[in-house]
Write the structure tokens for this entry.
Amino acid sequence: MSFPPVSSSLDCVTRAVVACERCPRLRDHCRQVAETRKREFRDQAYWSRPVPGFGDPRARLLVVGLAPAAHGANRTGRMFTGDSSGDWLHEALHRAGLASQPRSVNRDDGLRLTDAWVTAAARCAPPGNRPTREELARCRPFLEAENALLARVRVVLALGGVAHEAWLRASGWWERLPVPQRPRFAHGAQTTLPDGRILMASYHPSRQNTNTRRLTRAMWSAVFRRVRRLLDE
């Protein structure tokens, strides 16, 4: 996959993401979802294209999720926007002083992030919320480019094991660190990497995790309190 030089801009990465057609299975699924729609959104036009990251280009916090939700970001065109996972994330970012409002319903709702950038391991909504390893590998250059351009990032918050591994691979630490020293995913785990960046891990705020209370509000709030403290140090 070819990209503009990383010295260009995050806007170039955004254009490359939106134009991507590298994964036929994912593109077909996104278009099919947009055609059938969900009853509550039947009058809305779906984005149904790959979804770029968004936020503050000078961010010190990078939040990495799994993939756009079929009726969330695949519909709205912005990561973590228009679904319950986004409600959890933006409420927490707002409470931490990183988002201008606690809820995001569409990409034109006025939400602004300060000191935070939100992205994902995969940019297309996958069937069953499960991208293949090959699809994740094809998508990785986008995350690599964001890593290179977001030069002020100090804290990386990985939401779920797939996002955790995806960021470690995109940043190069997966290959550079010996296996015993490679950070392992566990909710609340915090690792200071050799370059000084801090990798934090949390369960993803998906309905599967929040409805079963694998991830509670208290657990989620505790993660963001730690993020806020790290940014303030």
Notes: The mean pLDDT is 95. The longest strand covers residues 61-65. DSSP finds nine helices and six strands in the chain. The longest helix spans residues 133-149.
